[in-house]
């Protein structure tokens, strides 16, 4: 890769934004999530908009979401907050002296991707670093790879997808861009009851406490694991849903399938318990519901848990129902309990530590799963069509899985996951099910 240039792009405002200058405390949802930058990569074949058009659109889009142009700071209690100071977004521009076709095949990179997005700041430099960092990689053929990295405590996956759509619209529409008006009141998403009354156990679920499972952390995880992509076609998904036999979402049926295959590959003992940490968007589940266009974090987790023998032996329908029942428990009552729990902890002066995994976590016998199937990353169009590939690179934790809408298989789904080097993915394409007993 040739020498790159970098600049800090500041948002363009017609009038000052109402939250400009504010020190915005992290909500309990922000504090429960991953304390990391999350990279994603979008690939576009030529022709593509010039960098100047992309940067102009970016400045207009960031003005709509000013938290992304801010910086982490520390408040009077010693807690992290977002200072909406309009310091800007880091943009790096690089020229790559090869054709895009030589590095991307069938929607996947055949070369390392770690130079395609800005280097992640070390932990001691997070405070003061740009919360949104972008790298525009221009290839000899005219193709474009956008490396996008944002801090998770500033925005969850749903918010990131919304921002990307806004950026793409700003580039396409230019001076005629019509800015949306997202809901930005973070404090309104975490209002405790007059008398906070947590009724569920949030220690070991969202925050560390007694009795939580601990996992091994590998000092050099990428030497022990590999990132692989399994591509499920629309036909495979239809056949899988028919096997389930009841109405179910694409995510639930594919997760049941992946749970079965990973459990078999790991060779777990039949009586050993295995659970899945499933991210759940809580916007519509809260009472009152939080607007769908809320920008920030509004995710909790469901934890379906079964013995390995049941994961393998139950029918697909039984495993799907176990997943669905666990997700259904993340309801308005649970969400309010979570918020109340945080309020009680704050009143007691307690500093909570999130259970969100650190890089290098080896989850076996468990899994952690995120879904971007509703985010439409595969439709982000800057003016010359949708991406030819969308990649979540360098997953650092064994057993981490992400479901993505496929850019190459119409109606299909890509499952990106981090698995041990000696595991094979061939069985993921098979619906063979050695059923020990039935759970209907």
Features:
alpha+beta; Chloramphenicol Acetyltransferase; disordered C terminus; 440 residues; 22% helix; 2 domains; 6-stranded mixed beta sheet
The share of residues in extended strands comes to: 15-25%
Q: What's the tally of helices?
A: 8
What is the CATH top level name of the largest domain? Alpha Beta
Q: Encode the helix/strand succession as letters.
A: EEHEHEEEEEEEHEEHHEEEHHHEEEEE
Radius of gyration: 22 Å
Poorly predicted runs are: 434-440
> What structural class do the secondary elements suggest?
alpha+beta
Characterize the overall form. Answer: globular
The termini sit apart by 55 Å
- Our count of domains comes out at 2
As an assembly, this protein is single chain
Number of strands: 20
The overall average pLDDT, rounded, is 93
| Main beta sheet | 7 strands, mixed
Give the second-level CATH assignment, the architecture of the largest domain.
2-Layer Sandwich
CATH H-level homologous superfamily name of the largest domain: Chloramphenicol acetyltransferase-like domain
Description:
- This protein folds into two domains: about 5-190, Chloramphenicol Acetyltransferase, CATH 3.30.559.10; about 215-430, Chloramphenicol Acetyltransferase (2-Layer Sandwich), CATH 3.30.559.10.
- About 20% of the residues lie in helices and about 25% in strands.
- It has eight helices and 20 strands.
- Strands 12, 13, 14, 15, 17, 19 and 20 form a seven-stranded mixed sheet that branches.
- Helix 2 crosses helix 3.
- It starts with a strand and ends in a 20-residue tail after the last strand.
- The model is unreliable at about 435-440 (pLDDT under 50).
